[in-house]
Specification:
about 120 residues, mainly beta, 6-stranded antiparallel β-sheet, about 45% strand
Length: about 120
């Protein structure tokens, strides 16, 4: 999967535990009708990928969705989701947003020539 948007925040690399697990968070804002602020985690050797990027840059990020199940000592089960980044590249400002398709300008459409002048509604409702 891929996410397109502009970088809003690049976090510092953090280390956890005695085995040196590393994680770095990035927030990207999608450019769609209702922009979303998505936090994407880069882990281990992928944390250094973010060094070449700056806040405000348009990017395309390769992601994987991750889910975990956790059971509390009281027996309650909870589920957690995360977005894991594994690739990031600069995107041009002309790159369409996720799910968008390019539509040619109105004057590039050919006029319809074989229409009848009757108002026929064949919808079943």
């Amino acid at each position: 999967m891929e996410v397109l948007g502009k970088i809003k925040l690049i976090g510092e690399t953090k280390s956890f535990g005695s085995n040196g697990f590393q994680k770095r968070e990035l927030v990207v804002t999608t450019e769609e009708q209702y922009p979303q602020h998505l936090m994407i985690e880069f882990v281990q050797d992928k944390t250094s990928l973010l060094d070449a990027f700056n806040v405000g840059e348009p990017v395309k990020i390769g992601i994987n969705l991750r889910g975990r199940e956790w059971q509390s000592p009281q027996g309650e089960t909870k589920y957690f989701n995360s977005i894991a980044g594994w690739r990031i590249e600069k995107a041009s400002a002309a790159t369409p947003t996720a799910g968008a398709t390019e539509v040619p300008p109105f004057d590039e459409y050919e006029p319809v020539s074989n229409t009848k002048n009757e108002d026929h509604d064949d919808l079943p409702f």
